[in-house]
Amino acid sequence: MFRYFPDNYVWSLSVSIALNCGGQIGEIDQICAPLTAAARDGDDAGTEKFFQSWCDFADGLVARAEQDLADGHPLSAGARYARASVYYLVAERMQSRHYAPRQDAYRKSVETYRLAVEHGRERAELVEVPYEGTSYPAIFLPADGEPPAGGHPVMVFCNGLDSMKEMLVRLGLPRELARRGIATLCVDQPGTGASLRERGVPAVHDSERWASAAVDHLQSRPDVDPQRIGMSGVSLGGYYAPRAAAFEKRFALCAVWGANYDWGQLQQRRLQREGENPVPHYWDHVQWVFGKDSLEEFMAFAPRMTLEGVVEQITVPFLVTHGEDDRQIPMEFAVPQYENAVNSPDRHLKVFTRAEGGSAHAGADNEAVPANYIADWVADRL
Q1: What average pLDDT does range 354-380 have in this prediction?
Q2: Which CATH architecture has domain 124-381?
Q3: Distance between CA 10 and CA 13 in Å, rounded?
Q4: How far, CA to CA in Å, does 58 sit from each of 20, 79, 201, 317?
Q5: What is the SS3 assignment for the chain?
Q6: Distance separating alpha carbons of residues 361 and 380, to the nearest angstrom
Q7: Of the residues 146, 160, 196, 318, which has the fewest C-beta atoms closer than 10 A?
Q8: What is the pLDDT of residues 189-246, one digit of tens each?
């Protein structure tokens, strides 16, 4: 993975996320060059400086986009809005939940994404998925071309611990699926994105609850083939997606971008400072995501987040991908996710190497490699 900050994995991960989501390296260098000294003080210290630098640059992009519109150049404006949205999201996800300015940054990120879609002529539809008396937001990305008779196949694509649906859209997988004739529903499931930040809906371990709601929504659409709906997820989505496919039998297949067999056990290791965290202020962040009032309450809950005894119930084609250099989730959490899926009629384990790319956590070093591999695997089967 590109280490802009050689001694700070978490900050460098944010740089890689921005690059993989369409950020420009020259712009990111302007943002990060003033932060090199602060990065040496650890993950948590200096995050407010990190926030300010990324947001200031994004604000400048918005001003230039507005000038583009005034000059009659909406496509140029759309491109700037798209990058601004990514930079606001990168700034926001690095902050403590108690840092009030993050709320405004999140609002700006969502609004600039909407403006990027509008002025950049992107094919994307903002939707609400009814869920247990309320709803959660999602983005439907149609496949390329007109829907065939019976509709396009579609993949549900879910967040991990700290991503948002707007980030999922910018990763390569939805684009590559669309090119192969497959639509994508990128979801802010409970505990992520707007569900958490604006609606206060925490994450749940039994992901089939919200995943079943996504299937209900998709089966109501005339442009979707109701028999060809797959499930996918990135990072902690590597737990959520298999769990959903194991218990929601309407899914036709499951593909994960990063294995996550026993996330609960991993939390015990992180207490011992084994491996890397994805965000600063980590323990406060997970309590927020799962709606727990203390570290003790969270640690009592965490053992529920396991796929032991779950992947055995997957009865559809199942792809597990992982990177050999993943510093967050050890390889030992990938192999049993594949080996124990004994009832899948078509199971595959793909380990991305440093030589081919995609070897860091969730392909942070090169998202194009796993995105194309997963899209090909899905297209061959869905």
Answers
A1: 97
A2: 3-Layer(aba) Sandwich (3.40)
A3: 5
A4: 17, 12, 28, 42
A5: CCCCCCCCHHHHHHHHHHHHCCCCHHHHHHHHHHHHHHHCCCCCCCHHHHHHHHHHHHHHHHHHHHHHHHCCCHHHHHHHHHHHHHHHHHHHHCCCCCCCHHHHHHHHHHHHHHHHHHHHCCCCEEEEEEECCEEEEEEEECCCCCCCCCCEEEEEEECCCCCCHHHHHHCHHHHHHHHCCCEEEEECCCCCHHHHHCCCCCCCCCCHHHHHHHHHHHHCCCCEEEEEEEEEEECCHHHHHHHHHHHCCCCCEEEEECCCCEHHHHHHHHHCCCCCCCCCCHHHHHHHHHCCCCHHHHHHHHHHCECCCCHHHCCCCEEEEEECCCCCCCHHHCHHHHHCCCCCCCEEEEEECCCCCCCCHHHCCCCHHHHHHHHHHHHHHC
A6: 25
A7: 146
A8: 999 999 999 999 999 999 999 999 999 999 999 999 999 999 999 999 999 999 999 9
Residue 131 in tokens:
């869920």
Ranges of CATH 1.20.1440.110 domains, the chain: 9-119
CATH class for the region spanning 9-119: mainly alpha
Q: Which residue spans of the chain are classified as CATH 3.40.50.1820?
A: 124-381
Q: At what angle do helices 237-247 and 208-219 cross, to 10 degrees?
A: 70
Place of tokens 């509709």: 151
Return phi, psi of residue 206, to 5°: -90, 80
Per-residue pLDDT tens digits for 260-291: 999 999 999 998 887 788 888 999 999 999 99
